[in-house]
Amino acid sequence: MSKISFDGAPIEFRPGQSVAAALVAGGIRSWRSTRIAGRPRGIFCGIGVCFDCLVVIDGVPNQRACRMPAVDGMAVTTQEGTGHGDLTV
Amino acid sequence: MARVAVIGAGMVGTSCAYYLARDGHDVTVIDRGPVAGGTTSRGEGNILVSDKAPGPELDLALWSATLWRDLGAASGDGPGDDALELEHKGSLVVGTSPEALGSLMDFASGQTAAGVESTLVPARELLDHEPNLAPDLPGGVLYPGDMQVQPAKAAAALLRAARIYGAIVHAGTEVIAAHTKDGAIASLRCRNNDGDIDIATDAVVNASGTWGGEISTLLGAPIPVLPRRGFILVTEPLPRVVRHKVYSADYVANVASGDAGLETSVVVEGTRGGPVLIGASRERVGFDATMSYPVVRQLAAQAIQLFPMLKNVSLMRAYRGFRPYCPDHLPVIGPDPRVRGVWHACGHEGAGIGLAPATGALIADMLAGRATPVDPEPFSPTRFAAWADGAEAAVRDGSEGGDAK
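YS: structure for the whole thing
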């Protein structure tokens, strides 16, 4: 079965599943922290509208997990806040 | 004390309402839309002295900056920094070529004589001030006195303060006619969803921003206020990546220009909410609010030249609005000689937010017959006394005096 990784751990997925579906099926419910209070966030609307399910995919932050088809070997990582903390001055 | 009707609940109108109500006048604010729904909410919230050459507008801007600090001070009776989202961030103006830096340094030394504080920042120190800036820029000038507000919040805060002094607000109410008696303004006929109302008044302040020309005609005292379209890009929320208002020195030249064609000179700054704002374009296309992708592309490209890290940041949206400019690039502030009781407070182009408190205070001082800290003569509507719709030739068309976007 094909796999993505989440924070380094392998997650299996079926062809056609979104990253969000694969994560939830793999028992993971949150993959982002909010900008100000650092609260956990995962999937909410599931249809690309609410931007709650943002996540880092292959190093690029702010990807909507619900809109991104899972691809074998994809590296998904938790997004902290804006996902651009490295740019802070 | 007088009854004063202020037309326009934007930054300038609410400032006028605040200073007039504080003087004890019976103030009524009328706007056809919501508070800050027209010109005010479409800008960036600039409070700049850095982009102004020595002259009347700079004098007004320096006084206005002092008034902004008073309004933001926790000890005063103003709304305070938080309610205004007033940030004392300063500007870093960057010369993008050695020639541009040379002109910028000349410009800054002229300003020093006029009372503007600034410091030269050599190339090797630029990154200490703005670590994300492109590494190869020749240098810049830091202006610690520049500030920024969230303009819609600031207008609402000043209106709230005016209401504490008794001001009355009619939003969603359009002025449809003005009535005079013996050559003086007597009342305004206004229309809203409940029908028509007549507001009897001793004075009217035309603070209707980009629509100041239209309202001036309705008041029988036409002045030329024309729209100049400007775009601002909004990025996704970011941590603090830009400390100051950072702009290229070309901005000053564009601001003072009267060209009709598209001009862009990048202004980049962070906001308290997280997104970075990228301005500023200007073009004379009438009231055409069409989205323009070439303008967005050009602004984005210029922003990336200054801050290369922005190329990995997404834009969320772009907004645009109309900057109300006068052909001589000076605002129109003061009593109109043609109709007694008609006062103008408009035509600030892109500097309306910055100049708003001084505009309101100037009108309050003149109405009360007090001495004014700044000479009001250069802003007087008398320069347009011979002007009427279609008679633009009578307008002095100089290019002196810078004006923010």
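YS: worth flagging: Residues 56-72 of chain B form the longest helix (17 residues).
IM: good catch. Also Confidence is low (pLDDT under 50) at residues 390-405 of chain B.
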